């Protein structure tokens, strides 16, 4: 078998901001394989330690969308409101005002020439989605805790939130581990804690043969990486998708039941649709009342970020995402793997809801349709220096910061506004 070796390495030198750690990732990939968009997965640099400051306390009045407005259905429209009456939107933050932008998502730093992708806002069909209000968010979430469980897109989401909140306060890194995949950040003046748990499959996973890339997935075992950690959190945002595209063996009750693209005679290929579905079922069962996680907060299921934005080839065959504006709603629609993953996630969410007899604190954060329309929001080749002396791929998986992913937190704020603890019991 032919082997591809990919080395991604970059470092940041910044004058006044805390230096981001050097990232060095070696991925061993084995060809030939089908399309593995999820393989583009640079490891994290550790978050910089950060300073915090207090802003003058202002009682926040938060705009709420009407209850009958579905914030997940809509379109992207030009953003002409920057508050100065002059037209032209201002991004919430920049790579100088926010010190926690992941290297590979710092598109401005790496020379992205167009700013057009920052000039759109998401408009739901029946209402306006209020802009993110950092003061309101922190007031609302005072004394509470939020965990992100998932892969590098969960981290992308958390970093967007930290950048949006940086206008008011920077958190302190209070992680109890040096592992950069598990960060805990504390907002002292609001006693708000956010944590990210690395768990790209949500269930126990082990790369039995690192060189061959084959993963063993224990589909009925929630991953200990988060299971033990989430008890006591008020909110957990659960997400996963891209890693299921990797070749894997499926175990249930300790027995090999099938695989995805393992090409092992006698092992049925149940496909990645099966593994994703069962993994979500397992994770949600663990998170609902009486589940193995001992969690009694609100679980938020974030649907997948599209896997389909590579054009002109697969991720490792020259595929890229060079569009500079969003699609109109009638220019594309969810299809193929994105549609199958999305269907499985929504169905498993509904199943968990039903199984709990309607008392589960479960919320669906259905971001896929909005993000599908944003092929222009990825780093593409602006996630690294053009002249780096290494083999690099275009990143059409993660999202530039600032960028369209910031809408996830505009949506999250509205969800939190509607679902205060206690509002579920009725
Ligand atoms: C921020 O982006 C600019 C280009 O807009 C770049 O010159 C600068 O190095 C970046 N700074 C950091 C800290 O990433
Ligand atoms: C901070 O919040 C935690 C819950 O997240 C709570 O247990 C703790 O008492 C709070 N601390 C203060 C000083 O309010
Ligand atoms: C994970 O795989 C390694 C081989 O790479 C093996 O030694 C180990 O026992 C496996 N762990 C589990 C929990 O299956
Ligand atoms: C999409 O809708 C717009 C109006 O919103 C229309 O101008 C355009 O022609 C439509 N495009 C397609 C491909 O149907
Ligand atoms: C690129 O890396 C190779 C191997 O490490 C080295 O021989 C070569 O000189 C490097 N080229 C440049 C332009 O840095």
Automatic annotation (TrEMBL):
Keywords from the UniProt entry: Disulfide bond, Glycoprotein, Golgi apparatus, Membrane, Signal-anchor, Transferase, Transmembrane, Transmembrane helix
TM region positions: 6-29
Any single GO CC term annotated in Swiss-Prot or TrEMBL for this entry: Golgi membrane
Domain Trichome birefringence-like C-terminal: 129-415
Pfam (any one): PC-Esterase
Localisation per UniProt entry: Golgi apparatus membrane
GO molecular function: xylan O-acetyltransferase activity
Domain Trichome birefringence-like N-terminal, residue spans: 68-128
Membrane-topology descriptor: Single-pass type II membrane protein
Principal subcellular localisation of the protein: Golgi
Stated family: Belongs to the PC-esterase family. TBL subfamily.
This protein's name: Uncharacterized protein
Taxonomic lineage of the native organism: Eukaryota, Viridiplantae, Streptophyta, Embryophyta, Tracheophyta
